[in-house]
Amino acid sequence: MSIFTRAVQAWFACCHAIEWFMGLMVVANPGTFQVRVDGMIDHHLPSKSPQLSIPRTAVREERLVDFVGWLATCSQLPWSEIDHQLQIILPESARNQFGGCDTATISSDGRRFVDVTCDAGSPLDWLRTRSGKRESPAFARPVGEPMAVHEITGKIFPHYEVNGGTAHLVGCQLEDKPFVRLTFLEKNAERVQVNHAYIATDGSSVPSEIVEELGLDQVEPVPVTQRSLHPSQLDAMVNAGLSVENHSGDIVPMNGVEEPVVVTIIWVKYVLGQLQFTIGNESVAHAFEGWARTLQAAPYHCPVTNSHTFKLGQVDDGTIVAADEIDRCNRSGAHVLRSDLVTCNATGENVLAEFVKPCPVSDQPVLSEYFSTCRRCGEEVSLPVLQKEVCAACRSLGPVSNADPTIAVVLQKYPALARWRWWQLSQTRRVSIVQASGMVRKLLMVCDRQNQTITQISVGRRGSSRWTVVDRQDWSDFLDR
Ligand SMILES: [Zn+2]
Questions:
Q1: Are both 408 and 469 inside the same structural domain?
Q2: 42 lies in which domain range?
Q3: Residue 419 included in any domain
Q4: How many A from CA of 265 to the centre of ligand 1?
Q5: What are the residues whose beta carbons fall under 8 Å from the beta carbon of 92, sequence distance 6 or more?
């Protein structure tokens, strides 16, 4: 908000009563001052006229003669353009205002009748008596707007793909929503400029890009319709339009014109509808809404996968989900959510979790049949961690001192082992693999990691890779003093 606008508001606040209307500030009986487009004060003279302030961005200009032609169309008066002048065929009822003439020609600038005088004044004044006043507004709709449900659904349906199922419309409603167009004249020495300002139902001015998107700038008259705004709502919108705050700092002068010369209600189609996607006995709903002119198919939000998609499919339990999130279990063939599948570390297959188990060495899921026994530690491990039948844990023993916590617990439990030296250790998810050496022999023990209880003992000669598993009955040779 510009400093100027702030100053104006402060001045109003000091001098005049302020009331709230539709949440917008309306100045009651303010003084008038004229403002140039650049926002400089020319002079201020007390008057009863309200200050009109419409954001420049919300104002669109139109040629006066085009606007007069439009008003003639609104009044269902046949007209044609001849040599840049509008010639109107007058209805019987109006001819007495024109001295009995059956046609009236309007000048190329739209400001006067040519060769005929109208009791009601200028062309604009005369046409205004027929339609477009605040109490009897003109009605219009955007040109080329979708008018029927099939025009809407025709744009939407092709976007959706339902694997093994169908999409159909369970409801679609076209509602007319009103915008109010206020038409002001800006007069100067050279010409009369027609300015349109567009007001939404909440009293806000409609930005220029929305005016274009909704086609508010290209409207055609519609006959007086049963769909009429309640006078109080129309009044509220017009008044709000007259007091729209200027957020940009630009102010368009209306040169003291208190009221819009023409008020037009533009009915714009708004769509509310719902699609249903059905596969087998299951179905899901997809609501849509928006302006008929700009409505585009929106992706379906899949609540199961929290994804947005135009492609739907069904998993084997019947749930309809985003098709891209469905995959097939390589083992069972079931169609399930991709997130329910795991990848076997041995084969790369995507399978349900029930077909795999974790490898105690790699911790990776592997199909159950891709496990084998390590000939050194005796553990069931997955094939990818085996080399020459020895698992990665047994191949990666590392030296530790006998003060290592794991070794210390083993020694505490089996004190006789203290005579062994050169400790080495490796661990899987389930067991510790402990190696120790003497002068000639070496010992390999597999201990449960939970309680450090030895579950296997093997013995070998130093310098040899061969190990012999010791019968449990002979463990006392190693574990007793
Ligand atoms: Zn092993």
A1: yes
A2: 3-52
A3: yes
A4: 84
A5: none
Q: How far is the CA of 343 from the centre of ligand 1 (A)?
A: 24
Please report where in the chains the tokens 């749930």 appear, as a residue.
Answer: 319
Measured between alpha carbons, how far is 27 from 300 in angstroms, rounded to an integer?
48
Question: Based on the domain organization, do 47 and 81 belong to the same domain?
Answer: no
Average pLDDT, stretch 307-323?
97
Q: Which residues contact 270 (CB under 8 A, 6 or more apart)?
A: 174, 175, 176, 177, 289, 290, 291, 292
**Residues 89 and 39 both lie in one domain:** no
Domain membership of residue 83 (yes or no) is yes
Length in residues, the chain: 481
Question: 136: which DSSP letter?
Answer: S
Q: Specify whether 45 is located in the same domain as 92.
A: no
Three-class DSSP category at 425? strand
**pLDDT tens, residue by residue, 332-379:** 999 999 999 999 999 999 999 999 999 999 999 999 999 999 999 999
> 392 CA distance to ligand 1 centroid (A)?
7
How many A from CA of 447 to the centre of ligand 1?
12
How far, in Å, from the CA of 418 to the mean position of ligand 1?
A: 24
Domain assignment of residue 19, yes or no: yes
The rounded distance, in Å, linking the Cα atoms of 438 and 418 is 11
Cα-to-centroid distance, 103 and ligand 1 (Å): 108
Q: pLDDT tens for residues 157-195? A: 999 999 999 999 999 999 888 888 888 877 766 777 788
Give the C-alpha separation, 241 to 52, whole Å: 9
CA of residue 375 to ligand 1 center, whole Å = 7
> How far does the centroid of ligand 1 lie from the alpha carbon of residue 241, in Å?
83
Q: Is 16 or 155 the better-scoring residue by pLDDT?
A: 155
Q: For residue 126, report the distance from its CA to the centre of ligand 1, in Å.
A: 103
